[in-house]
Amino acid sequence: MIKKTLGAIRAHAESCYPRECCGLVIVVKGKERYVPCENAAVGDEHFLISCEAYANAEDLGQVIAVVHSHPNMPAQPSEADLVSCEASGLPWHIVRVDQIDGNPVAGEFNTIAPSGYCAPLVGRQFFHGILDCYTLIRDWYQIERGITLPDFKRSDEWWNDGQSDLYTQGFPLAGFEIRPHEQEPEQGDVILMQIRSKNSVPNHAAIYLGDGLILHHLHGRLSSRDVYGGYWQEITRAVLRYRGNDGSSENDTAVRQAGG
């Protein structure tokens, strides 16, 4: 990376503090250039580059890297950084920013690149839209059955917006059908649950592993295996079984990273 690009990244990171900055490195007519992007995320603990901003950068030149900052944190990649870097297929540059003598100062700089990283099914951190209950189901189906489920754009707290019913609508598009509620679930079935949803719709999903166990990922917790009974059965709203998808769903998820 040339000095001019690095300087532009550091300046942008300092100007966005205490929020995370985000941007893209592009090549225009053989010259490197940094394109700062607006952080479209809600809150201060993650960043979101919108599809429109990404497309605008592509109109200018070839995108060769993703950039974001870690305010008051080391420039070491989080688990979500590693997963998102793999999904983007691009190198990621991370810059640390700290407040020193009352002023934001960019410091440590780190670069990661796609290397085949896959988050473990059990013990992964939660970052909505990147590492959440639906991501866990997608990864389980890819690892255990070689099936690639479509991804869906998931806005933060969609279950409280007064209208969305993402899981009820989305899982049929991914090839799942509702099973009779009285039937015992089979390994690989998806169990839809409702947890404090203002929309009164299912907003949590688990994979049934067999032998009375589920694999799931709750907001704010590590992914885990738990016994399917008691509370989990009480909040169950539907059991779905994969039957295959005769269509494809376009993945319109923006470049996103949550939790630093």
UniProtKB/TrEMBL annotation:
PROSITE patterns recorded: NLPC_P60
Keyword flag Protease: yes
Keyword set, alphabetical order: Hydrolase, Metal-binding, Metalloprotease, Protease, Thiol protease, Zinc
Listed SUPFAM superfamilies: Cysteine proteinases, JAB1/MPN domain
Domain of life: Bacteria
UniProt cross-references to Pfam families, sorted A to Z: NLPC_P60 (PF00877), Prok-JAB (PF14464)
Domain NlpC/P60 span(s) in chain numbering: 103-243
Similarity field: Belongs to the peptidase C40 family.
PANTHER family registered for this protein in UniProt: CYSO-CYSTEINE PEPTIDASE (PTHR34858:SF1)
Protein name according to UniProt: C40 family peptidase
Protein's organism: Undibacterium aquatile
